[in-house]
Amino acid sequence: MNISRLVRQAQRGNKEALLQLILAEQDAYYRLAYKYMGNKHDAMDAMEDMIITLYEKLEQLQKREAFYSWSKTILVNHCKSALRKKDKLILIEGKQESFIANLTEVDPYLHFESETDMKELLSKLNPRQREAIELRYIHDLPYQTIADMTGAPIGTIKSRISQGLVKLKSTIGGDRYENDRGEITRTQADL
């Protein structure tokens, strides 16, 4: 799929090209919206708002190859706006009643045990560190995209991620390991 070509076609009014671009990343959009909104219905509403904004403002996109980072930034902004309207805090942690209430076996994006464990670990971080780590490692977004989405400088994003990882490592007893791959050091192996 040639992203630049599809974006160019969509900018010229081809709705099918825009639809093709959105459908190619629909799972990533849903997971991102769900992380912010905490339930399926609000996530879908945020995605609908994103699609409308994409349709209305697509001609403003100058770097066609940056369509996905641009569209994800729009999605995050819609999520944050919806949360502000509902007078909710931007929480991406898992100790929410609505999270557990919305779990169903039909939803392929949720794995209860691993999600719960990960959310409990991430709840130990401050909201900005948690957001940066989730966007980087769960949604696999580059630093620059995260900086654009959050409005923070790229150095600040790297710092939040680094400090958050240090905190997570100490929380899970990460000092036992020699490196981030989980290899046990020789002194530990000798014990």
Automatic annotation (TrEMBL):
Gene3D superfamilies, A to Z: 1.10.1740.10, Winged helix-like DNA-binding domain superfamily/Winged helix DNA-binding domain
Pfam family, one: Sigma70_r2
Keywords: Sigma factor, Transcription, Transcription regulation
Family stated for the protein in its record: Belongs to the sigma-70 factor family. ECF subfamily.
Keyword set includes Ion transport: no
InterPro entries registered for this protein in UniProt: RNA_pol_sigma-70-like, RNA_pol_sigma-70_dom, RNA_pol_sigma70_r2, RNA_pol_sigma70_r4_t2, RNA_pol_sigma_r2, RNA_pol_sigma_r3/r4-like, WH-like_DNA-bd_sf
Domain RNA polymerase sigma-70 region: 22-87
Name of the protein in its database record: RNA polymerase sigma factor
Start and end residues of each RNA polymerase sigma factor 70 region 4 type domain: 119-168
Source species taxonomy: Bacteria, Bacillati, Bacillota, Bacilli, Bacillales
